Amino acid sequence: MSHPFHASGLNCCRGPEARRGFLRMGLAGFASLSLPGILRLRAESPASHNRERKSVIMVWQPGGCSHIDTYDPKPNIPSEYRGPFDTIKTKVPGMFFSELLPLQAQIADKMTVLRSMRQTAGGHPAGTMQLLSGDPDTRDKPKPKLPDWMTVANYLQAQAGTRNSPLPAYVSVNGPGGSYNGPAYLGEAYAPFSVTGDPNQPSFSVPNIGLANANEVRHLQRRSQLRQNLDQLERTFDRANELQALDEFETQAMTLLTNPKTKEAFDLTKEDDKTRDRYGRNTWGQQLLMARRLIEAGVDIVTSSLKGTLCGRVGNWDDHAVNHHVFDALRFRSKAYDQAVSALISDIYERGLDKQVLVVVTGEFGRTPKISYQPSTGAGNASAPAGTKQPGRDHWPRAFSNIWAGGGIETGRFIGATNTLGEDSIERVCSPGDFLATIYHHLGINSANIAIKDFNGRPTPIVDHGKPIPELMG
């Protein structure tokens, strides 16, 4: 596991930039107080303490999933658009999926398919920023201007000061990450607790969680004596009463490391073999199983990105012909994808979590309805040898699908529609703002009335344009 904070020395705090630098300090150097700093920031403002706990698991398809080949099949369109896959019935009359998704078809009554998403950015960075942060810019920027919804929700929940779990509020299990999304002006104190690696490997472990060795615990406690660093702290903390609160946050940070619950939440060996098999004994299956465990244990937001070797040669869903033979790639990844997602959704309902937990599965856009042909740039899984002409689908923000489950929503239906060729969303068209407002609504956040100050002190709405999608409001 890697944590999003990095070791750094203590310096005098000379304003916001110095404070952000201070908050990047990591768990490894515990005397640097990075985690207590985070916990301190997560309880600065009062709010209602009576709201029922709500959670979100977002499953991310990096690169964008072909809607025509999955949730919005078009069996009667011309061959230059239609892929080779048959259309199958689902458990919901009138709802059809691609043959690649037989397990999800069997539980279609536990999900709602949104077939009319649309955004305006054609590149991966801008497309991701539109969907996850609401940034309307169509240009690909090197880093996000606005914080993503996960960070915003983490920040707002922190201000409420209602959490009493030893676990972080927001965890990324091989989540989207990278430079396309992040905390922006909210600062890395609200970025996710980041878990990396392959949870399917027997050697997988999450360092610095739930120390069990008594000697290690005592050693850590000695290192975390705040008063040993009092002189430095007095120079670092420039807000009234912060020093007085540090003992409380130090205790919470120590709990993350010493409470057995924290270690157990990440420990997939606590699951029986049947459950692990059900999700799939592969990276994606075990990621989503961990997501469910973390939510049950008290985490509020979990993101997990389905990327890597299970996708094909280039490790994502970006099925240009130069990257993958698009149809071979979809076949290659479909079993693991279908199994993991269907297991997660079924598990949420079977364990009585379907009112609390909203599951959202999406990528940043769809893929071109019309098939393109280009020479492959290299041989590998789902890709022919270099120079071989093969089919692909390119970026397509004008129409794409995502699925929603749990969250107390009415399921067993689809929302919206695309035109005959799947080129445009034409019915119940939904925007990134609608997508974000819907997730915020589930978390009890009234996005229409909330703005957060940016680096320049300007109040910035967390959703500029958009309203919760009525059919997805539990």
Q: Can you describe what's shown?
A:
The protein has 474 residues and is α/β, with parallel strands linked by helices. The chain has 2 domains: 1-41 and 211-258, no CATH class; 54-210 and 269-472, Alkaline Phosphatase, subunit A (3-Layer(aba) Sandwich), CATH 3.40.720.10. It contains 13 helices and 18 strands. The chain has helices at 16-23, 34-41, 102-106, 124-133, 149-160, 214-223, 230-236, 242-258, 260-265, 273-279, 283-297, 326-350, 432-442; strands spanning 55-61, 87-89, 96-98, 111-117, 170-173, 193-195, 301-305, 357-363, 366-367, 372-375, 389-392, 395-396, 400-406, 413-415, 417-418, 425-427, 451-453, 459-461. The protein has an 8-stranded mixed beta sheet, with helices on both faces. A two-stranded antiparallel sheet has the order 2-3. A hairpin with a 6-residue loop joins strand 15 (417-418) and strand 16. Helix 4 (124-133) crosses helix 13 (432-442). The protein is globular, with a radius of gyration of 23 Å. The protein starts with 15 loop residues before the first helix and ends in a 13-residue tail after the last strand. The model is unreliable at 1-50, 223-228 and 237-249 (pLDDT under 50).
